[in-house]
Amino acid sequence: MYRVVRAHRRTATAFGLILSLASLPTIASAQQVTLPAGGRFVTIGDSLSDNGNLHGLTGNPPAPYFAGRFSNGPVWTELIAGPMNQPFLGGPVTGNVNLAFGGARTDNAVNLNGPIPSLPTQLGTFLGLGGSFGAADTVTLLGGANNIFQYFTIAGAGATPAGITSTSVAAATDIAGITQAVASAGAGRILVSNLPDLGATPAYNGSAATAGAGSLATFAFNQTLATQMQALALANPNTNIVQMDLAAALNIIRSNPTAFGFTNVTSSCLATIACVTGSTAVQNSYLFWDGVHPTAGGHQWVAVYAALLLAPEASAADTAVLGDVAMRSRLAAVDDVLDRALGYSEGQYQRHNGLWAMVTGNRSVMGARGGVAGYDQTAGGMRIGLDRAVSSNLLIGASLGLGAGRLGGVMRSDLLTVDGDVYANYTADAFFLSGALGASWMGFDDLRRATGFGPVDATGSTSAKQWSAAVESGFMARTGDVTWVPSARLQYVRSDIAGYDETAALLAMSFAGRSAEAVLGGVRLRASTLTDLFGSKGRAYGEIGYEHAIYEKQDGVLARFVGNTAQPFIGNAGDFVGRGLSFKVGYDAKIDDKVSVTLAYGAAFNDGAGTSHTGQVRVKMPF
Q1: Are 540 and 531 in contact (CB under 8 A)?
Q2: Which has the higher per-residue pLDDT, 107 or 21?
Q3: How far is CA 551 from the centre of its chain?
Q4: Ramachandran area for residue 421 (φ above 0: left; ψ -120 to 50: alpha; else beta)
Q5: Are strands 394-409 and 612-622 parallel, antiparallel or unpaired?
Q6: Residue of 188, 246, 504, 568 with fewest CB within 10 Å of its CB?
Q7: How far apart, in whole angstroms, are the C-alpha atoms of residue 305 and residue 202?
């Protein structure tokens, strides 16, 4: 893109000295992408990617354009790459390299903007100077608009839909050819962008006729490019061809500008005196700097989008939260039934057949760990069970639970849980041994993942199945009115999470099913005493414990972008952590000789991964 520089040359000269050095934007590092060892960025393109190449040779664009960029600040390519060498200005072809020129065409036809290196010439010059591509390199490729602009200039009022379409199709085909050439030269990854809707830019949105022509050109170009990228991806399995849907990204921004920090997405800042003479913040409240180029604020969002495409592993890893939530829900059910069994060892309940019910509620806040996002969870549920005293020493039982809740954070979802457990307790004098087997199903409905691109969420639904086995052993010792119960527990838990596809305007992913399992060991010391609170006889207790994952194994999060030729990627699921140091206090009140009510509160520090809090109400009703 170059034509707007000519249209605003007089305006640019008039305001050449307005911007002070203090107000000039600096290159942001927030979107910089870390490449594999030995990797670097190479940029081929036009003014949307030019970091000052055309200015270095011709002096265009002049102030108030920022340092030769076609914007009021750094462009997206340097935001994701950092400093970039400029071989056309005498720089080396090593390190990060920017070959893009404002006004460049995708072919070698006569350029109305002058003798500007076309995209094929940029690639040829780079290779001719000894440049090369490696498997760890990422090449960005964006162009085609100048071919369309020049068709409109030449055709004038005689522009036809057929001419617009053929010009756009030819430009997209050129981009496909350059993509193939870069892949054949050994590049490991190519980020290929389509065109933003030209009809929505200030240069074209002034009338229905020009807006329609610009949008038609964009549609023809983007449709052709998408089709050809599909074929190229299949033909070049050793090159990861990543499609950047710039049209969709800017459409999203225009549809909800305030969410992205913009107050004007239709006008040119350069053509608005209050904007061009305003502060950097004022200028960046406009999406467009001139007739077709984004402001630095616009480039920031393009850089954010590009970074999310080029480093998707972290976003994919966010979904590891689902396995974490499902496994902890299963372990909470194990706690319920083993605590129930321990109550019999302590003599809290009369030893006879009993039907019991329990209502629970909890809230957990887990911090981020190992690249996996933190989350908060609230849940409530009900559990019913049936105990049977087989003998004076042996109790067996079963329970069924139903719960619902809400997951918050980067991943958000409604939760539904169904679980079942069988358990047994053997008590001989002061010694006890308890065991439990259980299974759960958890549904994640209205599942939303924050994509990282402004307010855009990706939605979907999935489910998980869990299994567990646990054994706990300890003994009881009494000192005065206090009963001390030290115990040790060993438990195994596994979760299988179903794969699912997301729906989103941008950055939707498809996730493969995955499994996670862990073996946890823990100890706890429980102290209880008979007391009379609230006018009812009962037992007050408190405990301190520690739990750690002895063994854990999680599949990485295998994902791919929906509707994109980009190759699959794997997010790190992190380590499953035990509850670490934990505390619990509670009170078991006997309503009569058969009915009891338990109130309990617990907290765990989860091996430094955040604090979880649990509140519990349990009612036991024998028959």
Answers
A1: yes
A2: 107
A3: 27
A4: beta
A5: unpaired
A6: 568
A7: 22
Tokens of 49: 């990617």
DSSP 584-622: EEEEEEESSSS-EEEEEEEEE-GGGT--EEEEEEEEEEE
* Preceding amide of 622 cis, omega within 30: no
- Amino acid letter, 306: A
CB burial of 403-437 (b: ≥16 within 10 Å; e: otherwise) equals bebebebbbbbebbbebbbebbbbbeeeebbbbbb
Phi, psi of 184 (to 5 degrees): -65, -25
| Alpha-carbon span 354 to 333, nearest angstrom | 19
Measure the CA–CA gap between 143 and 140, rounded to whole angstroms: 10
CA dist., res. 384 & res. 364, Å (int)? 23
Q: How many CB atoms lie within 10 A of CB 341?
A: 24
- For the entire predicted model, the pTM comes to 0.89
In b/e form, how buried is each residue of 162-171, taking b as 16+ CB within 10 angstroms?
A: ebbbebbbbb
Neighbours of 623 (CB within 10 A): 9
DSSP, res 138 = E
DSSP letter at 294 equals B
Q: Which pLDDT does position 3 carry in this prediction?
A: 45
Which H or E element spans position 498?
none
Alpha-carbon gap, residue 416 to 380, rounded angstroms: 10
User: Which residue is listed with tokens 């509620």?
Assistant: 361
For residue 622, pLDDT beyond 70: no
Amino acid at 246: L
The answer, yes or no, to whether residue 582 has pLDDT greater than 70, is yes
- Burial pattern 503-515, b for ≥16 Cβ within 10 A else e, equals ebbbbbbbbbebe
Q: Please give the structure tokens belonging to residue 181.
A: 């050439």
Q: Are 466 and 330 in contact (CB under 8 A)?
A: yes
* H-type alpha helices, 82-207: 119-128, 145-155, 161-184
Q: Which residues make beta-bridge pairs with 477?
A: 484
Percent of the chain with pLDDT over 70: 92
Nearest to 4 by CA among 295, 260, 233: 295
CA distance 330 to 464: 11
Residues in the chain: 623
Bridge-based pairing state of the strands 264-268 and 286-288: parallel
DSSP letter at 228 equals: H
**pLDDT tens track for 299-309:** 999 999 999 99
Question: Which candidate, 297, 238, 241, places its Cα nearest to that of 265?
Answer: 297
Nearest residue to 383 via CA among 399, 405, 362: 399
- Name the residue type at position 221: F
Encoded tokens for 417: 């849980």
299 contacts 73 by C-beta, under 8 angstroms:
yes
**What whole-number distance in Å separates Cα of residue 219 and Cα of residue 134?**
33
